[in-house]
Every structure is written in C-alpha cells, then in structure tokens.
Amino acid sequence: MFALDWVIIGLYFLISLFIGFYFTKRASKSLSEFFLSGKNSPWWLAGISMAATTFSSDTPLYVTGLVRTNGIYENWQWWCFIFSGMLTVFVFASFWKRIGVFTDVEFISLRYSGKPARILRGFKALYFSLIVHTIIKAQVILAMAKILDVLMGWNKWLAIIISSLVTLFYSMASGYWGVLTTDLFQFFVALLSAVFLAVLSIKVVGGINSIKESIDPKVLQFFPPLDEGFLGASFLTFLGYIAITWWSKYSSDGGGVIVQRIISCRNEKEGIKATMLFNIVHYGLRTWPWVLTALASIIIYPAVSDPEIAYPLLVADLMPSGLKGLMVAGFFAAFMSTLSTYLNLSSAYFVNDFYRPYVKPDQKESHYVIIARLSMILLSIVTAIVTYHVDSVVGIFKFLIAFGSGTGIVYILRWFWWRINAWSEISAMIASTVVTLVVYTHPVLGSINYFYKLTLIVSVSALIWITVTLLTKPEQQDVLNRFFELLRPEQLKSSNTEIGFDSIKRGIQNVVWGSLFIIGLTLGPGKLLLGKTVTGMLYLSLSGISAFLLFRTLRPSE
Fold first, then answer.
1. Which domains does the chain have, with CATH numbers?
2. Which SS3 state, helix, strand or coil, does residue 495 take?
3. Are 21 and 178 contacting, i.e. CB atoms less than 8 angstroms apart?
4. How far apart are CA 130 and CA 379, in angstroms?
5. Torsion angle in degrees (nearest 10) through CA of 199, 201, 207, 210
6. Which partner for 234 in 218, 224, 227, 380 could form a disulfide, CB atoms 3.0-4.6 Å apart?
7. How many C-beta atoms lie closer than 10 Å to residue 285's C-beta?
8. Contact yes or no for 325/1 (Cβ under 8 A)
C-alpha cells in the first residue's frame, strides 16, 4: 500500500460519509423517512441499491470459493434464484406495493388476526433481526476481515471493529436515503474495481486461451458433469439448487431487502421496474468479472489453504499503486452497501414490528427514530460476536440457504390459499429452524449430500406445517375479504376469497420468459468470453427471443 492508495481510500470514505450524513436531518423526521425514504424512491435508484446490497465484500470471495472447489457450474447455487427473482418481478412486486405495508413482516397484521397474528409478528421481527440478519451480516463482515487480514495484516477483532464502525455511523445518521444514495456510489466503485482485477488477472496468466489450456475442462463447464451419473454428488446438488432451493428459501416471495426497495418506490410500476433492473444487473452484468478472476487464481495460486482468500491475494500481489487503493475502496464499497442495508432493515423489523406495537405504542416519531439508532448499535454488537466465531463464507451461505428453507412454500401460498393461517407460518418457521439445526449438527445427517439435506428439511417442515394448518381454525372471513380486496380481486379471478392459480396465468408465463431472458443474458457472455462463440450466440439468441415474447405478453396490459 502506497501513499496514492491511502489517498484514494481516504477520498472514498470522505465521499461516502458526506453522502450519508447529508441526509441526517431528513432521516430524523419520521420512521417513513428513516426506513423507506418517504416511499419516494425512483425505480433506477432502488434497483441499483438492490444490486449493491447483494454485491458485498463476501461475494467475490464466495464465487472464488465455488469456482476453485467445484467449477463454474457451482454458481447455480445463486443463479437458481433467477426463478424466484422473476416470480417477484411479475407477481409479488405488485402485491407488495398494493397492500401498503411498512415492512414485509407487517404483512402479518393484514393477512391474519388475533393473538396468533400478534405472536407471529413479534416473533418474526426478532427472528429476522436477531437471527437471520445476524448470520447474513456475519458473512459479509467475515469476508471483509479475511480481506483486511491479507491486505493490511489486521487481526480478526480489529478488522471486525474498524470495518463496521464507519458503516454503523452513517447508517445511524442518514437512514434509508443515505443507504440508497451511498449504494449508488458504492456500487460503481465496487464494480469498476472488480473489472480492473479481472482484466489484470487474465493478462497475468496469458489470456483466456491460457486458462482453457491450463485448467481441467470440468471446471469450465456451466452445468455439472455427468460422469458420476444422475445420482452423483455434483448433479444431485445441482438438482437441489434448481428444483428446491429457489422456492423453499424464506425469501421466496421477495424477501426483506427486495421488498423494502419495492415498498419505497413511488408506485407499483416503478417497483416492478426496479426489481427487473436488479435481476439484469445482478446476474447478467456482475457474474463474469468474479468468475474470470477466480479461474485465473487457479493458475496463479494452484494450492492455497483457504480457497476464498485467493481473491484478496490477487489484489495484494497484482494490483499496482493507485489501482490497489481503488480495489480496497471497492471492497469497502461492496461491504458497506450490504451492511448498511441490513442494519437499516434489521432495525426496521425491531422498531416497527416489535418495539412500536408491543413495547411502546403511541409515541412520537422522534422517539422511534432514536430507538432505531440505538437498536443498530445493539444488533451490531451481537453480529460482531457471532462473526468472530465463524470461518467460512461459502459455508455460511450454504447454511443460510438451508436455514428456514421449509418456510418458502408457505410464504408463496399465503397470498393465494385462504386456508393458510398464522399458525401455518409459526409452525413452519419453528420446524424448519429446528430441523435445519438437527440436520447440520447430526454426525450422520451432517455428512449427507446437500440435496438430501434440503429435501429432508423441506419435507419434515411441510409435514408439520400442513398438519398444524388443518388442525387449526382458518382465518376469519372478514379479515380475508379485506386482505384480498387490497390485491384488487376485481382484476384477479377469485373464488371463495381464494385467488385461483388461473388468475396469475399471465404472471407465470412472464416468469418463464423472464427466467429464460436472464439465464441467456448470464450464460451467453460467459461462453463468448471463454471463446465458445456459437454457444454464446445461442444463449444470447435465447435471451433476445425471450425478451421479445416477454414484451409481447406485457404490452396488452399497458
């Protein structure tokens, strides 16, 4: 690290802090401003913010670990969420905006009633803010700690504290507007630095042809090899991703971060556009700088004890003065954009869905803003302790996919099936949490293939929540009527207050075309970059045809 590098890093921090603190006064006006920017976010800013949040310091380390251990095809571990992403774009984005909630947890108070609804809302607020989001934040802080260890020689506690404090300060001060605006700046810093490293890494190893000649062809495959058959570990794991993971995860109908961005948009149409922009950028634009860098790292570092640290090692060894500073700033940008979002959303759950309704109702808005800022500090301390005791970014991500995987189908069905009640969600959350912990800690079950783990978690959880649903009373009719009225049942074919699946036929069709569009847009450039021109053009043609069919189905509804 030279003087120029430190100047670039210092400028990055100054700009981020300036943008963040600029919105302090505005954020202090109300909870709506602090958590949702007054529901006045432009679609392009909300969409880029979604992308910035999912692009954290852990992401390139995570992708590097996937490619180095299994190959390009292992990226289906996150590419599989293209399907749920399109489901959110064409079905749930409109639903979330129509019902007018403050957070996705507040949905509970509209869909259910009585004591079970109160228990569920409070429990879910704490479940996400204290458990799920702590795991996510620990994952991104751990990655940043690994990076700072390689680049700066900082020990784990020092890296955790310093990397978190700046983000905590501007998140507390500026609220959601600060998060959105800094996300925009941080996204382009992080993306630019990732592209620079990819270009430099490819140049050092002698170009793409050198990668193709030096690396096992299996590593370059986009789908798992079938040399072990359809029951082999690679294909079964892949099957778990594309057949189960995307709809079974707790974010199957959008998830907290995406929903927060949708709700904060000016109207329903802008919420849909923001979510579509996110999916295009998240998969089509960002995949290949990380993957190509990971492939180059296999040649440069054929043997490292931790495959995830190969990425920061490339920064330390290859980047010249100036670019190294930009790269470190890019790491911080990716890290801070994600951490600030989850600090804000965790606090929103705690204040809006637990503290305000159950602890201190009917207080002034300024009181809740103060509690929101204090809760950020408390949640940050909890996260720091958890981060210190974990070691693998990929391991955390894979556990997080399985954790709560039994709830995803409930979150989808609750929009359409009148029989789902509060006890359905409560039992699904408890069952999936307990079963996941048992499966991952059991000496025998912990060693079985991911596909079998996920199938076991989803199956046992489903057996429990379906049984509980049928043994408990359905929701009150007037509550169901009010909820489905918010979804404009006059535009959605309904029967017995249940929105039938025929009513979303066009939405499902759009999900199919949208998924093919994003898949082609993701895989096509990768094939072209690796010299597979014909295959790459076929994927891009698939993307173009799907985009045309998608546009044709959307056009009559405008």
1. 3-246+254-393 (1.20.1730.10)
2. strand
3. yes
4. 7
5. -160
6. 224
7. 15
8. yes
Looking at the DSSP bridge assignments, the partners of residue 498 are 495
Output Rg (C-alpha) for the chain, integer angstroms. 23
Q: What's the whole-number average pLDDT of the chain? A: 85
Per the CB < 8 A criterion, the answer to whether 205 and 299 are in contact is yes
Tell whether the model's pLDDT for residue 163 goes beyond 50.
Answer: yes
Tens digit of pLDDT for each residue in 381-411?
888 888 777 665 556 666 666 666 788 899 9
For residues 76 and 514, give the distance between their C-alpha atoms in angstroms, rounded to a whole number: 17
| Interatomic CA distance for residues 82 and 59, integer angstroms | 17
Name the one residue in this structure whose structure tokens are 């603190």.
21
The maximal CA–CA distance of the chain, rounded, in angstroms, is: 70
- Tell me which residue of 130, 30, 50 sits closest to 363, measured CA to CA: 30
Neighbours of 323 (CB within 10 A): 19
DSSP-derived pairing of the beta strands 498-499 and 494-495: antiparallel
At 503, list the tokens: 């009513």
Provide the 10 A C-beta neighbour count for residue 236. 18
Q: Closest Cα to residue 67, out of 187, 216, 278?
A: 216
Inter-CA distances, 217 with 122, 229, 295, 300, 530, Å: 51, 18, 11, 17, 12
What whole-number distance in Å separates Cα of residue 341 and Cα of residue 247? 23
Q: What is the pLDDT of residues 469-521, one digit of tens each?
A: 999 999 999 998 889 888 764 444 444 444 444 556 777 889 999 999 999 99
Give CA torsion, residues 140, 143, 145, 147, to 10 deg: -140
Identify the sign of the CA torsion 432, 246, 139, 308: positive
In angstroms, rounded to a whole number, what is the distance separating the alpha carbons of residues 122 and 105?
Answer: 9
Residue with tokens 């869905």: 353
pLDDT, tens digit (0-9, with 9 covering 90-100), for 90-136: 989 989 998 888 889 999 999 999 999 999 999 889 988 888 888 88
- Residue holding tokens 């075309």? 513
Say what the pLDDT of residue 289 is. Answer: 93
pTM of the model: 0.87
